[in-house]
Amino acid sequence: MLAHYHGQQAVLSEIAKSLEVSHTTIRTYLDILQDFFMVRQLQPWSGNTRKRLVKSPKIYIRDTGLLHSLLTIPSFEQLMGHPLVGASWEGFVIENISTLLTPDWVSSYYRSSNQSEIDLVLEGPAREVWAIKIKKSVSPTLSSGFYHACEDIQATRKLVIYSGSDQFPMKGGIEVIGLVAFLKMIREKN
Known about the structure:
Blueprint: E1 8-9, H1 12-19, H2 23-35, E2 39-42, E3 58-61, H3 64-70, H4 76-80, H5 85-100, E4 106-111, E5 117-124, E6 128-135, H6 144-153, E7 157-162, E8 168-170, E9 174-178, H7 179-189
Parallel strand pairs: 6-7, 7-9
Antiparallel strand pairs: 1-3, 2-3, 4-5, 5-6, 8-9
Helix pairs in contact: 1-2, 5-7
């Protein structure tokens, strides 16, 4: 069941109702899975803004191979046609980035009540605030919500990490970069 919530906000009451247990039991189980490095709970951004923000963490199964197995996706071809391929890619990207971050970086996500969203917010030393949108497409497009969200958090750097390998700019000062190049950049920065 948890695999179907991959990349989504954890609505503990829904999960608890489906399993006929309390939401505190689900919270305890999620915390245990996180302690065993099986699940990542990406917390919502907690900065100061006048917008009403979502307060539930997003849940990611850290091992995408395990995720695909739980979803009974046996092949790459079937993965590419699966409705959760984007969420799988998002989790893969977040996990790879998170393993390289030093403790002076804080990661979160941003989502307002009007659905403006940033998949990954990285806050680093020297007051850096990076807004990252993760796209599986090799020709990524952005909604206006991403631009509004970047303004809300006062992003100092705006990036799209996508499944391609080229780097190119988009309007609004947004950098598009492949995952491998981004990870190399993070390694060099640390």
